[in-house]
Amino acid sequence: MRKNFGVIGYPIGHTMSPFIQKELFSLRGFDAAYGKFEIAPERLEAEFSGKLKELDGFNVTIPHKVAIIPFLDELDTSAAGYGAVNTVKCQDGRFIGYNTDAYGFKKGLEFSGIEFAGRIAVYGYGGAARTIITEGIKAGCEVAVITSADRKEKALSAIKQINEKVVVFAAEEFDKNFDLFVNASPVGMYPNSSASPIDEQQIEMFNCIYDIVYNPFETELVKMAKNRGKVWGNGLSMLVCQAQLAQTYWCGAEFSTDETRLVIHKAEQELQEVFGK
Predict the structure, then answer these.
(1) Domains in the chain, start-ordered, CATH in brackets?
(2) Paired strand residues for 232
(3) 107 is a catalytic site residue
């Protein structure tokens, strides 16, 4: 019997999740449909009680990764530890929240040839950022958080809940040399593709740049990193890897490295065809 899945977020016109998940379902021969549901924050509770309850599972993206938690029956240890959910499974009428961001992020770095070590600066303090910060601390990295000046106080409050030793900087005041810069915010995401969390001069402070934004494939941040000869990666590899783990939770599916590379390549082609990026 066909199963039904999807992704929720707001806005969500940019998402590549349906294409990627359908490619993965096809590789394993699963009979499954996968749609996208644009849900404004104020509609989340109503939609969860309605159309989302009819799904066998769904992915969660900005801005619902934290807001979805109160509506779930259970959190897997991955989601509880990060305080954010990006995958939900319906099992025997109960909705269980998982987090595949950490796995996807670390595997995405591997596919980009970037080491997750040393001094790491993370831009943002939302669900994905919290996951990356937590993983960085676990890995013994020195982690700093960068945000815009007007959000610094909110960032301080959010990051304090994770680790009081993590220092928070406004982008304008950051002037240190680090190994890796991670944009874990939607800055630079389609359709606001001309924006960047840091400027070209600040990029010189980092050896590697990783942007979890994948649409456009080359964000303004990535373009500047390439111009400066930096090692770089983007969120498309992360998205494919975390989608694979979501299917492990939903269907017990496993995928090889070659299959992962194939889907990343197909997703890049699709992204360029659909969005011209």
Answers:
(1) 3-100+237-275 (3.40.50.10860), 103-235 (3.40.50.720)
(2) 209
(3) no
